[in-house]
Amino acid sequence: MKTGAATSRMQLVQSMGDGITPGAKPALPLIVFDKVALDFGARRVINALSFEMKRGEFVCVVGPSGCGKTTLLRLLTGLVKPSGGEVRRDGHPVAGPARDVAIVFQDYAKALLPWRTVAGNVSLALEAARIPKSERPARIAALLQKVGLAAHADKFPTQLSGGMQQRLQIARCLAQEPALLLMDEPFGALDAMTRQSLQDEMLQLVREAGTTVLFITHDLEEAIYLGDTVLALRANPGEESSLARSFEVKLPRPRNQLTTREDAEFLRLRRLAFDYLQEHH
Amino acid sequence: MASPVLLQRWRGCVVPLLLLAAAEWCLHGVQSDALAPPTRVLASLWEGLRDGTLLGASAQTLLAAVGGLAIGGGLGLLMGLWLGLARHAAAAAALSVELLRPLPSMALAPIALLVFGFGYRLELFVVAFTCFFPMLLLTQAAVRSVEPRLLEVAQVLALSVGERAAKIVLPAALPRVFVAFRLSVGIALVVAVTTEIATNPQGLGYALIAAQQALAPERMLALLVWVGLLGWGLSAGLLALERRWFRQGAPA
Q1: How many helices (H) and strands (E) does chain B have?
Q2: What is the predicted ipTM?
Q3: Strands A212-216 and A92-93
Q4: Nearest C-alpha in B relative to A109
Q5: What is the per-residue pLDDT across B199-238, written as a single tens digit (0 to 9) for each?
Q6: CB atoms within 10 A of CB A108
Q7: Using the beta-carbon criterion (under 8 Å), do B150 and A110 form an inter-chain contact?
Q8: For residue A155, what is the DSSP state?
Q9: Which residues of chain B neighbour A176 with C-beta distances below 8 Å?
Q10: A118-128 and A136-146 helices, crossing angle to 10°
Q11: What is the pTM of this model?
């Protein structure tokens, strides 16, 4: 499938939820990747990658290791500059980190400050955003309430389970009030039960806030379950586009761990994507 | 009957006590310029504590050790932070540090004596020079070993350089920096006493030499015991502080 076709297909994808899109110009996509290329030394990691993300859209990215999934996030934070093409946000090239772009890392244990309490870790994002000291406690309490950590505000991260640590990292990212939330295999290190409950809680939180999400995962089913759109990237693109294929997911929301995963459309997409990946990798 | 736990706790004392008893038995009534029985050493220690000479000398030595540590260690800490954060500065400074660091600090005492004369300044200089390098190198290493993910979090939050240093780098490096400080305290005490023995007529080191020259082995040994106790006390105190402050969430 050609890049241009993939882009136009995605433009057709309807914005999910109640149809209220945050921002004044709903027609303008929040993020545009325009023929983006990236070289690491002599190796071309990403080639001719073009796609758009609408406001409030939940885009999942799957692909084999080394296909530049994580690099995609870095391009969006501006920490990595493309070797060719352009990454645009609201029509302007991404220049550097912005306070309303948050990343949830997979290795939550390394991403939290071990010397700060749960509340202190959330506070870091508020301090970075110059929120006055007097306003912080109320905001921290509200955020911890949202992610179910209200009872653990005074604990240190090492005293929490893996799932709770990841909740804490999500709370810290929500404290940034992100317009764009980037998630790099956030639930990859968690057990199946914890992963499922975190998937649902996270979906609800980003729906409520109208956040646009780019979610990277190894897990095809997770991608279909969560996303409005699933992008499949290919490793070693060579002359081809890095974007191997994109799938629209027209499953009703709110999604449900049982009914959604038994839905005929879910199974069809799963089959389609699995077959596709098997053929190409 | 002693409980097994109590027995275990005091087991370490058995050998030293036996050795002390053996020394007492062997040295009792022996006239020597180098050795004295433990009871006489203890008596001399008590005497020194009572007439204030020991405490006065201790104050002089500790002042020089702590002062030198504050100057040398403080500079080493700042320099280490800087070199840890700035790759270019580290590359530029590497050769100088490697050339200066192996210098035995006591070799500088003769020059320092000519520059500063006898007294605190001489000793402060030698102690500061000695403490500077371990603080510098260990702080630099501590800053370098800060979890890269945390630095990335700081970047994503768009923290300023100052905020990054104060909120991420320093707290992350602090446990290791404190270890460097604890080691430097031990070094400072050793070097202060050594300087006093070799060059500077004050403090515990000089008292040791004076006792030697007065052919008073019990006084000499009493000073030795006292210096040992001081060093042990300082190190145990700092270790307790370290455990208390960094028990929580010290990065591995």
Answers
A1: 12, 0
A2: 0.82
A3: unpaired
A4: B149
A5: 989 999 999 999 999 988 999 999 999 999 999 999 999 9
A6: 23
A7: yes
A8: S
A9: 157
A10: 120
A11: 0.77
